[in-house]
From TrEMBL, chains A, B:
UniProt organism field: Sphingomonas chungangi
Residues of the CMP/dCMP-type deaminase domain: 3-112
The protein's assembly and partners: Homodimer.
The family this protein is said to belong to: Belongs to the cytidine and deoxycytidylate deaminase family. ADAT2 subfamily.
Protein name per UniProt: tRNA-specific adenosine deaminase
Amino acid sequence: MAFPLPEPMRLALDAAARAGEAGEVPVGAVVRRGGEVVAVVANRMRELGDPTAHAEMEAIRAALARLGTGRLDGCDLWVTLEPCAMCAGAIAHARIDRLYYGAADEKGGAVAHGPRFFAQPTCHHRPEVYGGIGEAEAAGLLRRFFATRRA
Amino acid sequence: MAFPLPEPMRLALDAAARAGEAGEVPVGAVVRRGGEVVAVVANRMRELGDPTAHAEMEAIRAALARLGTGRLDGCDLWVTLEPCAMCAGAIAHARIDRLYYGAADEKGGAVAHGPRFFAQPTCHHRPEVYGGIGEAEAAGLLRRFFATRRA
C-alpha cells in the first residue's frame, strides 16, 4: 500500500501539472505556516519571460506578500523538484524552517547535488530537509513534459 | 594615480550609497548591454519586505522587463558586493556574459567563497568574472552602514 501524499505536496504536484499544460516546465511549490497553506505557485518562467521565476522564488515572494512578515520563520516550503542554488539561497534568506522536495535534480539541484548549499560552512540558515516526497509523480511530470517538447 | 572607476561601477556605487541613506544595506547593481545601461538598481529588501530582493535580483528582473528578451545574453552585471548563492544562480539562469563585482563577501559570497558556484561542475552557465573593482569604496559603504546601526 502506498503512503498517501501529504496535502501540501499534493497541491504542489497539481500546480506543477497545470503549469506543464500551460507550457511551463512543470514544477510547483507550496508555502505552509502551521497548518495553513499561504502560497501555491508553479514555475512562471515562460509567462513572465523571467528565467529566475522558479516555483520556489515565486512561492516565497507570494508568501512574503501575503504574510507581510519580512521573513518566513515558522514556514515550510514544499516543492516538486530539488531546489537549484538560486532557490536554496532564497530559502536560507527567507529563513524557512523546513524544506520538503520531490524529485532529485542531478544536473541543477543544489541541495543533495552540486554545491550542496545547506552543507556549506558559510550557509547562514539551514532548514530541515526532506527529499523524495512524491518523487515518482514529480519526476514523471518533468519526463513527459520534456519528451513531448523533444518529439 | 588611481584608475578612474568604470562608469557602470560608478553608477552601482552611487545607487548603493542612496540605498544606504534610505536604510537599505548599501549594495547596488547595474546591467549593461553593449554600451547601454539597461538597469540601475539597489538592494530593496527593506522597502519590499523581501529578503530575496538583493540588488542583483532586482537588476536582473528590471533588465528582463526592459529588454523583453527572456534572457540576458550579451549583458554585463556590475555589482558592488560579491554575489551570494541565490544571485549567482540567477546570473547563470539569466545567462549574463560578464560579472564585475566590488567588495569580497567572505561570509555570504558564493563566487570566490563558500559554494564557489560558477566553479561547480553542475553550473550550467559561467560568466566571465572580474572582482575587486571599486572594492574599497564598496566595502567602506557597507562598513559605515553597519557601524551606524550597531552604535
